[in-house]
Amino acid sequence: MTENEWRSFATAGTKLAHIALVRPDGRPHVTPVCFILDGDEFAFALSPGSVKGKSLARDTRIALCLSDERQPYSFVTIEGEAQVSSDVDQIKHVAAGIANRYYPSQPAEELAESFVQAGFTAVRISITNVVARSGLG
Protein backbone atom coordinates (compact mmCIF):
# COMPACT_ATOMS: atom_id res chain seq x y z
CA MET A 1 0.00 0.00 0.00
CA THR A 2 1.04 3.58 -0.53
CA GLU A 3 1.10 5.95 2.43
CA ASN A 4 -2.25 7.44 1.39
CA GLU A 5 -3.74 3.95 1.08
CA TRP A 6 -2.64 2.76 4.52
CA ARG A 7 -3.78 6.03 6.10
CA SER A 8 -7.21 5.62 4.48
CA PHE A 9 -7.35 2.00 5.63
CA ALA A 10 -6.41 2.99 9.19
CA THR A 11 -9.07 5.68 9.45
CA ALA A 12 -11.94 3.86 7.72
CA GLY A 13 -14.69 2.56 9.97
CA THR A 14 -14.26 1.61 13.59
CA LYS A 15 -11.72 -1.21 13.47
CA LEU A 16 -9.74 -1.77 16.62
CA ALA A 17 -5.97 -1.75 16.69
CA HIS A 18 -4.03 -4.46 18.46
CA ILE A 19 -0.95 -3.15 20.19
CA ALA A 20 2.03 -5.25 21.19
CA LEU A 21 4.26 -4.41 24.14
CA VAL A 22 6.86 -6.20 26.24
CA ARG A 23 5.89 -6.95 29.85
CA PRO A 24 8.48 -6.32 32.57
CA ASP A 25 9.22 -10.07 32.74
CA GLY A 26 9.85 -10.19 28.96
CA ARG A 27 6.58 -11.84 27.95
CA PRO A 28 4.64 -10.27 25.08
CA HIS A 29 1.42 -8.39 25.76
CA VAL A 30 -1.09 -7.86 22.93
CA THR A 31 -4.33 -5.99 23.53
CA PRO A 32 -7.00 -4.21 21.46
CA VAL A 33 -7.42 -0.43 21.67
CA CYS A 34 -9.64 2.24 20.18
CA PHE A 35 -7.36 4.72 18.42
CA ILE A 36 -7.12 7.76 16.21
CA LEU A 37 -4.59 8.70 13.55
CA ASP A 38 -3.70 12.27 14.49
CA GLY A 39 -1.43 13.81 11.90
CA ASP A 40 1.65 11.61 11.74
CA GLU A 41 0.97 9.79 15.01
CA PHE A 42 -1.40 7.12 16.22
CA ALA A 43 -2.98 7.90 19.58
CA PHE A 44 -5.02 6.05 22.20
CA ALA A 45 -5.88 6.37 25.88
CA LEU A 46 -4.66 4.34 28.86
CA SER A 47 -6.72 3.59 31.93
CA PRO A 48 -4.94 4.02 35.27
CA GLY A 49 -2.98 1.01 36.48
CA SER A 50 -3.18 -0.85 33.17
CA VAL A 51 -0.62 -3.44 32.07
CA LYS A 52 -0.11 -1.28 28.97
CA GLY A 53 0.86 1.70 31.11
CA LYS A 54 3.21 -0.31 33.29
CA SER A 55 4.88 -1.81 30.23
CA LEU A 56 5.27 1.57 28.50
CA ALA A 57 6.76 3.11 31.65
CA ARG A 58 9.60 0.60 31.34
CA ASP A 59 9.95 0.28 27.54
CA THR A 60 8.44 2.72 25.04
CA ARG A 61 8.80 0.44 22.02
CA ILE A 62 5.41 -0.48 20.60
CA ALA A 63 3.81 -2.14 17.59
CA LEU A 64 0.26 -1.62 16.37
CA CYS A 65 -1.58 -3.80 13.86
CA LEU A 66 -4.85 -3.27 11.97
CA SER A 67 -6.43 -5.90 9.72
CA ASP A 68 -9.49 -6.70 7.64
CA GLU A 69 -11.90 -9.43 8.68
CA ARG A 70 -12.90 -10.36 5.12
CA GLN A 71 -11.16 -11.25 1.88
CA PRO A 72 -9.31 -9.80 0.19
CA TYR A 73 -7.38 -9.26 3.41
CA SER A 74 -5.34 -6.16 4.14
CA PHE A 75 -3.23 -5.16 7.10
CA VAL A 76 -1.12 -2.31 8.41
CA THR A 77 1.55 -2.84 11.04
CA ILE A 78 3.17 0.18 12.66
CA GLU A 79 6.31 0.13 14.76
CA GLY A 80 7.25 3.10 16.86
CA GLU A 81 8.04 4.81 20.11
CA ALA A 82 5.25 5.68 22.53
CA GLN A 83 5.03 8.89 24.52
CA VAL A 84 2.67 8.80 27.50
CA SER A 85 1.18 12.12 28.58
CA SER A 86 -0.90 13.18 31.56
CA ASP A 87 -1.49 16.61 30.01
CA VAL A 88 -5.22 17.31 30.34
CA ASP A 89 -5.49 18.96 26.91
CA GLN A 90 -3.81 15.95 25.26
CA ILE A 91 -6.09 13.49 27.08
CA LYS A 92 -9.17 15.48 26.07
CA HIS A 93 -8.01 15.72 22.45
CA VAL A 94 -7.39 11.98 22.14
CA ALA A 95 -10.56 11.06 24.03
CA ALA A 96 -12.68 13.39 21.89
CA GLY A 97 -11.21 11.85 18.74
CA ILE A 98 -12.01 8.37 20.05
CA ALA A 99 -15.55 9.48 20.96
CA ASN A 100 -16.17 10.94 17.51
CA ARG A 101 -14.94 7.77 15.82
CA TYR A 102 -16.25 4.97 18.04
CA TYR A 103 -19.12 6.54 20.02
CA PRO A 104 -20.70 9.13 17.70
CA SER A 105 -23.99 9.20 19.61
CA GLN A 106 -22.23 10.29 22.82
CA PRO A 107 -21.10 13.92 23.18
CA ALA A 108 -17.32 13.96 22.68
CA GLU A 109 -16.78 16.56 25.40
CA GLU A 110 -18.52 14.37 27.98
CA LEU A 111 -16.40 11.33 27.17
CA ALA A 112 -13.24 13.44 27.14
CA GLU A 113 -14.05 14.86 30.57
CA SER A 114 -14.84 11.39 31.93
CA PHE A 115 -11.40 10.17 30.77
CA VAL A 116 -9.72 13.05 32.61
CA GLN A 117 -11.77 12.48 35.78
CA ALA A 118 -11.00 8.74 35.72
CA GLY A 119 -7.24 9.38 35.51
CA PHE A 120 -6.61 8.22 31.95
CA THR A 121 -3.42 9.22 30.15
CA ALA A 122 -2.86 9.80 26.43
CA VAL A 123 -0.41 7.79 24.35
CA ARG A 124 1.02 8.98 21.06
CA ILE A 125 3.04 6.70 18.80
CA SER A 126 5.83 8.23 16.73
CA ILE A 127 6.03 5.95 13.70
CA THR A 128 9.43 4.45 12.87
CA ASN A 129 8.34 1.74 10.41
CA VAL A 130 5.23 0.79 8.43
CA VAL A 131 4.41 -2.53 6.75
CA ALA A 132 1.15 -2.39 4.79
CA ARG A 133 -0.29 -4.95 2.39
CA SER A 134 -3.59 -5.37 0.58
CA GLY A 135 -5.28 -7.94 -1.63
CA LEU A 136 -4.13 -10.97 0.37
CA GLY A 137 -5.81 -14.36 0.47
UniProtKB/TrEMBL annotation:
<dbReference type="InterPro" id="IPR012349">
    <property type="entry name" value="Split_barrel_FMN-bd"/>
</dbReference>
<protein>
    <submittedName>
        <fullName>PPOX class F420-dependent oxidoreductase</fullName>
    </submittedName>
</protein>
<dbReference type="GO" id="GO:0005829">
    <property type="term" value="C:cytosol"/>
</dbReference>
<feature type="domain" description="Pyridoxamine 5'-phosphate oxidase N-terminal">
    <location>
        <begin position="12"/>
        <end position="129"/>
    </location>
</feature>
<dbReference type="InterPro" id="IPR052019">
    <property type="entry name" value="F420H2_bilvrd_red/Heme_oxyg"/>
</dbReference>
<dbReference type="Pfam" id="PF01243">
    <property type="entry name" value="PNPOx_N"/>
</dbReference>
<dbReference type="InterPro" id="IPR011576">
    <property type="entry name" value="Pyridox_Oxase_N"/>
</dbReference>
<keyword id="KW-0560">Oxidoreductase</keyword>
<dbReference type="GO" id="GO:0016627">
    <property type="term" value="F:oxidoreductase activity, acting on the CH-CH group of donors"/>
</dbReference>
<dbReference type="GO" id="GO:0070967">
    <property type="term" value="F:coenzyme F420 binding"/>
</dbReference>
<dbReference type="InterPro" id="IPR019920">
    <property type="entry name" value="F420-binding_dom_put"/>
</dbReference>
